[in-house]
What we know:
Layout: H1 4-71, H2 192-215, H3 217-229, H4 233-254, E1 271-275, E2 278-282, H5 284-310, H6 321-325, H7 337-356, E3 363-366, E4 369-372, H8 374-380, E5 384-385
Antiparallel strand pairs: 1-2, 1-5, 3-4
Amino acid sequence: MRSTPRTIVSALGLSAALLLAPVVQAYAQDATQTEEQKKKDEKDKKKDQKQDQKDQKKDEKDQQHQGRGRSRAVQPPTVQTQTAPPQPQPQPVPQPQPVRQPRPVPQPQPVPQPQPVLQPQPAPQPQPVRQPRHVPQPQPVPQPQPVPQPQPVPVYQQPPSQWQNRPQPPAVYQPPPQPTPQPSFEQRRLPPQRQRDLIEQERLRRSQYNQRLQAQQAARQQRSLLLQRERRMAQYRFHQQYLQHLRQQQLALQNAYDYNRDPYFYTAPSFRYGRGGRYYEVNRYAAQLLQDAVNYGYEQGFEAGRADREDRWRFDYRNSFAYQDADYGYNGLYVDRDEYAYYFREGFRRGYEDGYYSRYRYGVRVSGHPRVLGDILRVIIDLRPLR
Length: 387
């Protein structure tokens, strides 16, 4: 009787196991089918994606082939002659392929353009009132004017206030005193003996200058040959013009000169200038000649510098024959040749620099001829009137 409960429990447990076994088996089978279904769905999904990609690529290729086929011209079929036509073979009937519709491609949305900002219109300006045309009045016929007679031009002009009497202020008391006239620079004359000494000095100076011009002929010809060998044709043409002017000066020295009628020999000094720590007193004729030496030097230097620039020659004014000679424009009178040559070279080197670099730093062109600026001229030779 004691083993009866155990038997009952064992029987109940076995019955429960038999009842639950189908349920557990069904649950395990459902779980297995669920996993397999998921894997199958994933494979089908990947397969569909690959197929969609292939279909899309195929559609793109078909569209490209259709576009190319339209642009190409249709070639006519070639006709071939055959002696015996072959027997037709039965062809398999092609199965219709399902037409796959291309997927719609989304169209890009248009970007909204900004609206232009309206600018305010300017107010209309009033139109100017047209004035009636001026009718020209007949001009009176000009009467012929008498031809003025040419007046002698002085060589050097200085303001008259520098050598004439200054006006005296009127006296306050009565009767006013009468001013005593003072002689001006132009009214003062040199003593006769001084005039004779100057004439003898100028004759000797003129003769020495003539001899110098004759002695320089060989050097001029050698320089001409040198320029031709160096193929400096622009400088050669300038050299020939310079020699032509020297020949004219030499011919003028052969003529007789009337010293007694030249106002230089009886005109007293009226200007003073300094050079090299020394001071010199000259009259207006000698002062004008020194200023001409600077201008002649600037003009010849300008032409020489321009010629070297045309020949593509180096900058070298000291090697120029005109700079070494410095006789252009000298007549053998009024001043020593060395004094004239010094101021000629001062103008020459400034003119050569302007001509070589094609500019006007030290001068200006007047009536077609280069001339030194007034400020530069006063720096080179500072002429001051005697008081």
